[in-house]
Design a protein that fits this description.
- The complex is a heterodimer of chains A (408) and B (273).
- With 408 residues, chain A is mainly alpha-helical.
- Chain A has 17 helices and six strands.
- In chain A, the strands form two sheets. In chain A, strands 1-2-3 form a three-stranded antiparallel sheet. In chain A, strands 4-5-6 form a three-stranded antiparallel sheet.
- The relative contact order of chain A is 0.18.
- The longest helix of chain B is centred in the middle third of the chain and has 12 residues.
- Chain B has 273 residues and is of the alpha/beta class.
- The chains are: A mainly alpha (408), B alpha/beta (273).
- Chains A and B meet through helix 1, helix 8, strand 4, strand 5 and strand 6 of A and strand 3, helix 4 and helix 6 of B.
């Protein structure tokens, strides 16, 4: 008799004695190339994948539930933990969604600083992608090189906000601090170094015979498939659609900035690799334009909306009413208007959307976090069959999935 | 007397509400304020019944009947060129309205417009899966089922996605407890060892960093080691001074190999060399 409350004994890794001679293999969740906690159940015919079943949820922390039970400002540091490789883009998307709900705009200098942080974060994320992806494919030295430059970029983040990975440096209504002394000079120095180094990475990889053999015509996502699966960001641009929210549905300062949106018609992993490299150059181009914009802007950093946002420290310490307002905002939280908002931004991974339903209370009624990697993982079940087992690692690495945001 | 807590919504609530404060509502514009959206709306009304329509923060919001979801999304995709279904999920209104709102967030890359199709279903009813139109619904509807228990009919694999397959309850319901519940507390013990082992093992330790300094079976007491499993409660803790070296140093054939460490003779550097 079966005991329902006991775990059934089963062989987790291999299903023996199948008539059709396929083998079921568990890939992950502890596999070093599973990029976090991806469990991939693969059915293999020889070395060819016949069926793939991605199993996610090992990092599920219930962020949407957490968001519904926190006041708006309280939730912001939690968004860091979604795409932890590029924390600022999560903060920014959230702050932008709440700002749109409240109907306020961040001051220009705050917006310049935010955009700078966003683009540095994009570079950090792309370097991290390059490093881990190259390591998965077997290029160890690229990993070491790319992590060195990522370290410089993280030092810049650290100089600004004190944190290296989970920044929380964007607030609802602006940014809390101005740039520190010499930060702009450091940024310029970093960009000189990075520009040289990206050329070295490209020299190591772009025409490398092994690299091309491993990436070309691997993980081909046709345009229709990418659209149907809701792929966004680099995966979509790699499938021949020139679509970047920064350009097509711009927000913040992006309408004023000049940059190109690279896209690739090859639809394969190699095309996506080239896009990542090109996007780093474009991010640097944006950063260079932001430096004069920073110097021209006024020094105000937080939006003035006393109903929703605490006053500056100076006002709080001199004016009684500002202090009272601050107490109310900290203890009870802001009460945004009743309504629904969906704001999407272009994170390094793709379209990062925040859908917030407010019922006028300090807690959001519903918070849906649209994380791009969720569907970039889902597509694996259609994409992997037909590939060799060794290519599975390439494809997972190439799609740039981060489990913090898949499982949320 | 303890304050009454409603059981149909256990979410956190504001502890103070100003009686005279009226929360503003986002302004909703007429659909005819935007020429692209009004064309879309008029085209869609020929296909399905639209119960309500308005513009909210640059989004066209359309309210349809739940049985029309496939035809509405198909029309939006094929005729109106909304080529992306960006997001779909539900909102729990069981306590107030007895059901769920389901939203389909769509994007048109050619028009650069966003559209939200919304519908309301009663608790316990299912909705037709949009998986044949957009493959992304495969995972989104699984997530919706996992979080709210809303079944999508004709879905290829209607199973939980984020929570374990044998989990009880649906976490995003307003009735779902915030801090776990009795069943979750005993979940692993019951599953692995059986209910009768509850007394032996005890409930789940929620603090993963908890350390019991008197537990000599699971924690080694660095620098104060005692034999495995020794009972050191009730003042039986032995005095074990931390020593890093033998007294008098180490000698081999009478020759000092390691000189004893002299605390007094050490020198503190003022700055790093």
């Amino acid at each position: 008799m079966q005991q329902t409350n006991r775990l059934k004994p089963f062989f987790e890794n291999i299903a023996f004695d199948r008539e059709d001679n396929t083998m079921v293999v568990n890939f992950g969740p502890q596999h070093p190339s599973a990029h976090g906690q991806l469990r991939l159940i693969l059915e293999l015919q020889g070395e060819e994948v016949v069926k793939a079943h991605p199993d996610v949820g090992y990092l599920h922390r219930g962020m949407e539930k957490m968001g519904e039970n926190m006041i708006y400002n309280e939730f912001l540091p939690t968004t860091d933990r979604m795409d932890y490789i590029a924390a600022t883009s999560n903060n920014y998307g959230y702050a932008l969604a709440v700002e749109k709900l409240l109907g306020i705009e961040a001051p220009r200098r705050a917006e310049v600083i935010r955009t700078m942080l966003l683009e540095i974060n994009r570079i950090i994320s792309h370097l991290f992608w390059l490093a881990t992806h190259a390591l998965d494919v077997g290029a160890m030295s690229v990993f070491l090189y790319a992590f060195r430059e990522r370290e410089f970029a993280m030092d810049l983040m650290e100089d600004y906000c004190g944190a290296r990975l989970t920044h929380s440096s964007v607030r609802i209504g602006g940014v809390p601090l101005d740039l520190p002394k010499n930060w702009i000079e450091d940024l310029e120095k970093f960009m000189v170094v990075l520009d040289e180094q990206i050329k070295i990475y490209e020299g190591l990889l772009t025409t490398n015979r092994i690299w091309r053999m491993r990436l070309e015509n691997i993980g081909v996502i046709p345009t229709e498939m990418a659209k149907s699966w809701g792929c966004t960001g680099l995966v979509l641009r790699g499938s021949g659609v020139q679509w970047d929210l920064r350009k097509e549905m711009p927000y913040g300062l992006y309408p004023e900035l000049e940059f190109d949106v690279p896209f690739s018609d090859t639809c394969d992993s190699y095309g996506r690799y080239k896009l990542h490299m090109e996007e780093m150059y474009q991010s640097m181009r944006i950063l260079k334009q932001l430096i004069p914009m920073y110097h021209e802007s006024e020094s105000k950093l937080m939006a003035h909306a006393p109903q929703y946002i605490s006053s500056s420290k100076e006002e709080m310490m001199t004016q009684n009413y500002s202090l009272m307002q601050h107490f109310v905002l900290v203890t009870q939280g802001m009460r945004p208007p009743v309504g629904e908002v969906y704001v999407a931004t272009e994170s390094p991974k793709g379209e990062l959307g925040y859908y917030i339903v407010s019922d006028g209370s300090p807690y959001p009624y519903r918070m849906k976090l649209r994380a791009p990697s969720f569907w970039h993982t889902g597509i694996l079940q259609d994409l992997l069959p037909g590939h060799q087992l060794a290519d599975v690692v390439t494809i997972i690495g190439n799609l740039n999935i981060v489990f913090g945001e898949i499982d949320r | 007397m303890r304050a009454y807590q409603p059981k149909d919504n256990v979410q956190k609530k504001s502890y103070y509400n100003d009686r005279f404060y009226v929360t503003p509502t986002l302004a909703r514009k007429s659909v005819y304020d935007d020429s692209v959206f009004s064309n879309d709306y008029l085209s869609l009304t020929k296909k399905v019944t639209v119960n309500d329509v308005y513009l909210e923060l640059d989004h066209l919001v359309l309210w349809i009947n739940p049985e029309d979801n496939i035809s509405a999304i198909k029309h939006a995709k094929e005729i109106l060129a909304y080529d992306f279904l960006v997001e779909l999920s539900a909102i729990d209104y069981v306590a107030t309205k007895g059901g769920f709102e389901i939203f389909y967030e769509m994007l048109s890359t050619s028009k650069r417009k966003r559209l939200r199709i919304k519908t309301f279903i009663k608790e316990g009813t299912a909705i037709e899966s949009v998986n044949p139109l957009f493959r992304m619904a495969d995972w989104s509807e699984r997530e919706m089922f996992d979080m709210f228990g809303i079944v999508a009919n004709n879905h290829p694999y209607m199973k939980r996605i984020l929570m374990p397959e044998d989990w009880h309850g649906h976490p995003l319901l307003k009735t779902y407890p915030l801090h776990g519940d009795e069943a979750a507390r005993w979940y692993e013990v019951d599953k692995i060892f059986g209910r009768e082992a509850r007394e032996t093992i005890g409930e789940e330790q929620r603090d993963s960093a908890a350390i019991d300094r008197y537990d000599t079976t699971r924690f080694s007491r660095l620098g104060h080691e005692v034999p495995f499993g020794t009972d050191i409660r009730d003042g039986k803790e032995p005095d074990t001074p931390v020593r890093y070296q033998e007294d008098g140093g180490i000698k081999i054939f009478g020759i000092p190999l390691v000189t004893p460490f002299d605390e007094i003779e050490t020198k503190n550097l003022k700055e790093r060399r």
